[in-house]
Amino acid sequence: MTKFLGYRRSSGRFGVRNHVLVFPTVICAAGVAEIIAREVPGTVYVGHQHGCGHLGAEREHMIRVMVGTCSNPNVAGVLLVGLGCEMLTADLLGEKLRDVGQRVETITTQAMRGTAEAIARGIELARDLLEEAGAAQREPVAVSELMVAAKCGASDTLSGLTANPATGVACDILIGEGGSAVFTETPEMLGAEHVLAERAADEEVRRRIWEITSRTDEKIKAMGLDIREAEPGPGNIEAGLTTLAEKSLGAIRKGGTTPIVEVVDYAQKPSRKGLVIMDGPAHDVVSVTGMVAAGAHLVVFTTGLGTPVGSPVAPVIKVSSNSGLYQRWEGNIDLNAGAILDGEETLNSMGRRIFEEVLRVASGKTTKAEMLGHREFAIHTIAPTV
Amino acid sequence: MTQPLILVDQRDNVATALRPLALGQSIQLEVGGKSEIVRAQQAIPFGHKIALTRLEKGDAVFKYGEVIGFATEDIERGEHVHIHNVKGLESRGCPE
Q1: ipTM over 0.90
Q2: Which one of A46, A168, A194, B27 has the minimum C-beta count within 10 Å?
Q3: Does A240 contact B45 at a Cβ distance shorter than 8 Å?
Q4: Which of left, alpha, beta for A154 (phi over 0: left; psi -120 to 50: alpha)?
């Protein structure tokens, strides 16, 4: 059985990183949180602009994203920094995180004598969390525990011919060994819905695939717009992508060829192992946030034009679709699937290399995005903010 | 060594250029086990598509073995296939 070296968590899951997050529960506490993280090297600040003014279902949606992010198995401990009067308080999120077995400390800035005291107290708590996390050691873990997110962004026409299908081969290998893969970007399933629906493991999954794709299309039409005017984007068109269907057919190849076992909502944890589709936007940072909040340990991110984005919680492995990009962007790209076109690799050998890189990164190898300090984070919104 | 064109699926009627093709350039390509010669009727930029067969207005354009759009005008074999002569699909909608 293939193994990687991971950190055992009290929840019974395993992490591939050992982060201590400093997480504001609301943007009003973001400044305090950012200063605390700066003063305690080794912690990771996760900034966002939400936590208050959420209407209707967006409140639960935000809780799911924030709790999911902070309880990703790559996170050893969390310092929640709240303001006090916000909708999603540190007490509220702290309780939910303790319920799922996550190590958490909280600060409420309004309960302190201003931000100076909040920062001083936060620094103490963050240091304690960091010290506790430092005691964790890696141990061999079956690869079936891994969940990989597959993502494509800043795509060119070669993405669908090299990097995406090679990533798909890696997903097939992982799933063949009992692990899981997830991909999202519902707008980039339009034109390829029938191909995905045919691969549904059961009737319910098939129904859900049609539901999420038609709903995405209808939502945009209800605004009097047509997604086909925005997709493919100008950069995609210049690179040779002609229609949304062409982009979609190339995009879905990153998930591989195994049956689709489940369709989950944005940031929702899958209940089944295997290949999972998440309903969500194609926006690169927003979709990575959703998959990581759903528990993805790491991200395989393909690109043809080059994008630097990473994640504060999950290592991101960048795979270029062509050798020209790799040569220009070697500092950002971990693997070059352009080698397939150069005759140096086949799709299968490239897929195997991606899978092996996943194991190395899961066991602690630093990715280029991590080395460069890329920690982009953005949350999908579903209602107007009041 | 890069081959100049890639055909993803044998059902496809377009291939993707893996390097820029010059006007009049002839490229050898394996289609259905047979070696065929396609002559570029226009310059084809890197990553763009070339027609492998003559397409009439309204014909489906196949890539990945699937329909990616429809020809908005007649397209000759060897011509550049892109947004100027192809239109995307309308929403597909659930079959039921």
Answers
A1: yes
A2: A194
A3: yes
A4: left
